[in-house]
Design goal:
ATP-binding, five-stranded antiparallel beta sheet, nucleotide-binding, 3 helices, serine/threonine-protein kinase, single chain, alpha+beta
């Protein structure tokens, strides 16, 4: 059986809608980081501390996924985070059917690229990353980051 902790008393996991957002359905990187912080704070206690580096890793994964959805996926259509046992699961949906790709750090002329590091960061920090097609179009990316 999986143990779950949520930072709100409702049945829904914390989302960017729980904090300030620009418009309906919007979720920026800062909103995502705050949602992760709220979810983790609800399960970390003195008798069950969470590693501060793991918390930062989970916030960075949420920030990178939302940034990628905004820059490459047509915007964030859904976001939620929950803590399951000793893991944080972050899910970000967007409008694009395109799969994320890691771009080489240099272009064909050998010049360093700006950006392009978000997806490799997510894949390195998360233990389990899944990309799922959504029935209404677009995709959902879920990433599990260990808290220990």
């Amino acid at each position: 059986m999986t143990e779950q902790h949520r930072s709100t008393s409702s049945a829904e996991p914390p989302s960017c809608a729980d904090g300030p957002v620009g418009h309906a359905g919007a979720c920026g990187p800062a909103d995502a980081r705050r949602a992760v912080e709220r979810a983790i704070a609800a399960c970390c206690r003195p008798d069950r501390p969470c590693d501060e580096h793991a918390v930062s890793d989970a916030q960075l994964v949420a920030s990178e996924l939302t940034t990628n959805a905004i820059l490459h996926g047509g915007g964030v259509t859904d976001f939620h985070v929950d803590v399951v046992g000793q893991d944080v699961r972050v899910c970000v949906s967007d409008r694009s059917d395109r799969l994320p790709v890691a771009r080489p750090p240099v272009d064909r002329q050998g010049r360093r690229r700006v950006g392009g590091r978000g997806w490799p960061i997510v894949c390195r920090l998360a233990r389990d990353v899944k990309v799922s097609d959504l029935p209404s179009g677009g995709k959902c990316i879920s990433a599990v980051v260990p808290l220990t």
